[in-house]
Structure formats: C-alpha cells, structure tokens
Amino acid sequence: MKKLGVTGQKWLKCFHVLSAGVWVGTAVSLSTKQFFITPSREGELFGILSTLDFIDLCVLVPGAIGTLVTGLIYSIWTNWGWFRHRWVTVKWVICLFGVTFGTYPLGPWLSGMTKISGERGLTSFNDAVFIHNRSLLMVFGTFQALTIIFAFFVSVLKPWREKKGK
Q1: 52 and 33 in contact (C-beta within 8 Å)?
Q2: Which of 24, 19, 98 is nearest to 62 (CA)?
Q3: Which of 75, 55, 123, 63 is nearest to 99 (CA)?
Q4: Cα 41–Cα 46–Cα 49 angle in degrees, nearest 5
Q5: Which of 101, 24, 110 is nearest to 67 (CA)?
Q6: How far apart are CA 147 and CA 94, in angstroms?
Q7: CA angle 102–99–87, rounded 5-degree value
Q8: Residue 100, phi then psi, degrees to nearest 5
Q9: For residues 157 and 41, what is the distance between their CA atoms, to the nearest angstrom?
Q10: Which of 31, 128, 140, 151 counts the highest number of beta carbons within 10 A?
C-alpha cells in the first residue's frame, strides 16, 4: 500500500495533534467542571448541564473521532503501523477504550443528568438516577481524562522503544 509523503505526514500530524488537543482539553474541562456545579436557582442546573452536554457532543466527540481517524490513517498509510512499537499499541488501546467508554456510559450518563435536571430542577440532587450518574461521571470521567492525558504523554515521550543494536 502506498504511504503518505513527507508533506502529507506533516498535515496528518497537524490534524492529529489538533484533534487530540481538543479531546484532551475538553475531557479535562468537563471532568473538572463537574466538581464545581453549585447552582443556587431553578434553571441553573439545567443550564449548566445542558451546556456540558452540548460541549461533550459538539466538541469532545469530534475531537475523539478526529483522533481515532487520524490514528487510523497513521497506522495504515505511514510506517508507524499498528503493533510495530509498543507505545503505538498502548495508544490504540487507550483510544479505542476512550471512544467506546465515552460513547456508551459517559455520554448517556451526562445526557441523563441533563434530562432529569430539566424536569426536576434543583430537586435533581435528590433523584437516585441523577446521584448515581453524577457519582459515576465523577469517578470514571476523571479516569477517562487521566487515561487520555497519559496517551498524550506516551505520544510525546514514546517509551518502551526497542534499543538500537539489539
């Protein structure tokens, strides 16, 4: 299969770094913000959560998908491959886990909280499903953000390289 040239790889790197930066930055922002939600009036909780849900769907998801797609292009059309380097394999595991886990439990938990807050306002803090979703988002959303930060460092540091001359 034909590989990307030098210019193509530079463009690919730009889009990959941009996508990953959007994904990491948004994940950190969403994860951090959830610890500081303290609405004092009706409607504020829904406003805050609907904004977080919008950011999740319209900023974080495109960043994650962009990272996944550019990673696929890297693996297929450059010499980095899929399993040639252990650090690339680790990044693939983290990326696939992040996209899957973010799509299924994390996103629906946030959307569910948004829906409940729209119906119940500040009494949402007494709703069992809301409390459950919030607790899980605080733990697993933070874990998710930390794992993709780890992938960012792996990408830059490229640990577990084979020693030359072996």
Answers
A1: yes
A2: 19
A3: 63
A4: 125
A5: 24
A6: 7
A7: 130
A8: -65, -50
A9: 46
A10: 151
∠ CA 19-134-32, nearest 5°, is 45
Tokens of 117: 């807050």
Per the listing, tokens 């733990």 go with 139
Encoded tokens for 11 = 């463009």
CB 2 within 8 A of CB 77: yes
Per-residue confidence in pLDDT tens, the chain, 166 aa:
788 999 999 999 999 999 999 999 999 999 999 999 999 998 999 999 999 999 999 999 999 999 999 999 999 998 888 888 899 999 999 999 999 999 999 999 999 999 999 999 999 999 999 999 999 999 999 999 999 999 999 999 999 876 454 4
Q: Which helix (H) or strand (E) holds 27?
A: helix 6-33
Euclidean distance between CA atoms 19 and 7, whole angstroms: 18
Q: Which of 42, 20, 8, 6 is nearest to 145 (CA)?
A: 20
Under 8 Å between Cβ of 16 and 74: yes
